[in-house]
Amino acid sequence: MSNEYLELSQVSIEFPTPKGPFKALNQVDLKISQGEFVSLIGHSGCGKSTVLNIIAGLLKATTGGVLLESREVDEPGPERAVVFQHHSLFPWLTVYQNVELAVKKVFKGKMNKREMAEWIHHNLELVHMRHAEHKRPAEISGGMKQRVGIARALAMQPKVLLMDEPFGALDALTRAHLQDSLMEIQDELGNTVIMITHDVDEAVLLSDRIVMMTNGPAATIGDILHIDLPRPRRRVELAGDSRYNAYRAEVLKFLYERQRNPADDDDTSGKTAQPKIRAVKTAQVGDEKVKVA
Amino acid sequence: MKDKFLNTLQLIGMTWLSPLVKLASGDNPREQFADLFRYVGLPFIAVAAFLFLWAGLASKVDTSLGQLPGPVQVWDQVQGLAEEHERERHKAEAFYERQDERNAKKLAKDPDAEIKWREYTGKPTFLDQILTSLVTVFTGFLLGTLIAIPIGIACGLSKTLYGAVSPLIQIFKPVSPLAWLPIVTMVVSGVYVSADPMFQKSFITSAITVMLCSLWPTLINTAVGVASIDRDLINVARVLRLGWWTQVFKIAIPSAIPMIFTGLRISLGIGWMVLIAAEMLAQNPGLGKFVWDEFQNGSSDSLGRIMVAVLAIGLIGFLLDSLMLTLQKIFSYDRSVELR
Ligand SMILES: Nc1ncnc2c1ncn2[C@@H]1O[C@H](COP(=O)(O)OP(=O)(O)OP(=O)(O)O)[C@@H](O)[C@H]1O
Ligand SMILES: [Mg+2]
Fold first, then answer.
1. At CA B260, angle to CA B254 and CA B266, rounded to 5?
2. A64 shares contact with chain B (CB less than 8 Å)
3. How far apart are CA A241 and CA A44, in angstroms?
């Protein structure tokens, strides 16, 4: 895994706010190889979506940049398809038309009409949504919408698939089902995937590496965990696997001991004391990063 | 089949009929009778109570034109107006018959004879006036829509443009039709000069006044609808690198359609309200002129006839609103939102 397919180097971003610039990310460095499945995990508001949006080209880093196959990313494009947290299907289009919009744009001139229709059907079949192709988003469930969103992204044949908490709004059962589908598809197609999640089990189950982020402001990568579990992975078998549980424990430790939820800090300490505590933490994490690297 | 029928009823705003349909198909009768009472019985009771109150109070009010008419007298006037309409139609038919005969005779005598065809110019009846009003209001509304939607879309797409136009919108929006009318009248008389005018000036004046007063809700709703498109959807469009044209016509406008229809519905309502005032002043031969003429006329029937007009205006306004609501429901892609 030495070839650097996607590279984030020294990415920092500041948002202009009424109270002056707000530094959300500080010096994020990350290298991802082709076909790798990487999860981003961290407390709410730490900057996960911001990282993803910078890779997508929807946000521009203040300093540093993103390279995909050694070319700088400076605008959004279909080779970095995004699955958004809230499905974001066009509500006035049917399931089929939603995928069609993407396919028509990406494969115009490369496929004829029949090939496009086949390709759309193929992608809907991947996520088992062929049966509802003529329904509108309002007529299907949340899990089904999310699947169509994934089909739309896959249909763009992206180099990198970016997913922002794709299963965040779903119930546990649907979520497990979609995770399995995603693993199947990933096995078959070998996409490079970056996925944001809040769910430790999900991260360990799906990822080759888990990137754990420190709390903001000026968040950065706290630690990276390699998950060396053989594929295909089955959730039921893994539940008793000692390595799986060790990985889980590691992520939990990072999240709840080394990076306590900023919301918890609010309960225990006065507001004025807060920045100091954060500063200490960031420094500590900084040391850690050296060790990891 | 039954569900489809019920859906159609719901779509055209006739929900009150659905208990009857369900009864006929053998659904739980108790529930259906309760629904029937709620949708039909209660409104019926309310209307009956109103009629009694009206009858009781009207008999106590004396005006210079006699007693204020109650429901019974108004109903008499409805019949009177209907008879008048019949009579006029007969007269018109008779007129054309005579004209045909005369011309036929002339031609029989001399095949090259010059023959004259004249339009019957009788007094417009109440129904004619309703028709004139409807044509006028739709003309004004259509003109307004043609202006409001493109400008609204442009304003929704560009914050700068919206910022620039916004003060004008805010200033002109609350202006009363009575204030516009004199200006419109003068402009129309000045600009629309033609030896053989296709439209009457009063019609154009009324329609333009309706347009000026009714275009604002559509404009504002269109602008807000286009501007408030979901950020995620815009991001999808950016990821797909959709062109400007596609973004506007495939994404911005469709996403604004429900808002646009809400605006159109409000606009048509305002247009209908404004029209009556405009017709009174412009002397456009519609319902407004009918009310004005009856008021000037001052016969013992006048108040009753004006009340007929008031009820007709209300009823037509209600029908127009139902029509727009039906369109709004048809065009809204999110059926889960209940529209009223
Ligand atoms: N456009 C913006 N302007 C100002 N501040 C912003 C903007 N976007 C994000 N931020 C701030 O940057 C930080 C990171 O936000 P981000 O949305 O990336 O968090 P997140 O990790 O995705 O959180 P969550 O898990 O809740 O989605 C937050 O403190 C947020 O307030
Ligand atoms: Mg987020």
1. 165
2. no
3. 29
Taking the model in full, what pTM does it have? 0.80
Question: Into how many domains does chain B fold?
Answer: 2
Structure tokens at B189: 């008389």
Q: Which of A79, A82, A63 is nearest to A194 (CA)?
A: A82
- A168 to chain B, any CB pair closer than 8 A? The answer is no
- ipTM greater than 0.85, yes or no? no
Q: Ligand 1 centre and the CA of A46: distance in Å?
A: 7
Rounded to the nearest 10°, the torsion over CA A25, A31, A36, A41 is: -20
A90/B251 CB distance under 8 A: yes
- CB atoms under 10 Å from CB of B103, counted, come to 14
Q: If residue A188 lies in a helix (H) or strand (E), which one and from where to where?
A: helix A172-189
Q: Are residues A100 and A136 in the same domain?
A: yes
Of A57-71, A180-194, B110-124, B279-293, least confident by mean pLDDT is: B110-124
Residues B146 and B255 placed together within one structural domain of the fold: yes
Q: Specify whether the CB–CB gap between A9 and A64 falls below 8 A.
A: yes
The one-letter amino acid at A35: G
Residue of A nearest to B255 (CA): A92
Closest CA to A43 of A278, A287, A284: A278
CA-CA distances (angstroms) from residue B304 to B57, B220, B301, B307, B308?
A: 15, 40, 5, 5, 6
Query: Can you tell me whether residue B300 is helix, strand or coil?
Result: coil
State the residue range of the domain holding A66: 1-79+161-263
Of the candidates A43, A20, A21, A54, the residue with the CA atom closest to the CA atom of residue A281 = A43
A82 lies within 8 A of chain B by CB? yes
- Ligand 1 neighbour A53 (Cβ under 6 A): no
pLDDT at B254 over 80: yes
* B161-206 pLDDT, tens digit each: 999 999 999 999 999 888 999 999 999 888 888 777 788 889 999 9
Distance CA B302, CA B299 (A): 5
Overall average pLDDT of the B279-285 stretch: 89
Pocket residue to mutate for ligand 1, from A23, A48, A55, A213, most atoms within 8 A of Cβ = A48
Residues A73 and A167 reside in one and the same domain: yes
Q: Say how many Å lie between the first and final Cα of chain A, rounded.
A: 15
Give per-residue pLDDT as tens, A52-73: 999 999 999 999 999 999 899 9
Q: Which of B241, B254, B336 sits opposite A92 (nearest CB)?
A: B254
**Interval A161-180: pLDDT, tens:** 999 999 887 888 888 888 99
What is the gyration radius of the CA atoms in chain A, in angstroms? 20
Residue of the nearest CA to atom 15 in ligand 1? A47
> What range does the domain containing B316 cover?
126-331
Q: Is residue B25 part of a domain?
A: yes
Residue B273 belongs to a domain: yes
The interaxial angle of helices B126-157 and B159-172, nearest 10 deg, is: 150
The closest alpha carbon to A232, from A191, A184, A176, A193, belongs to A184
Q: Is residue A278 part of a domain?
A: no
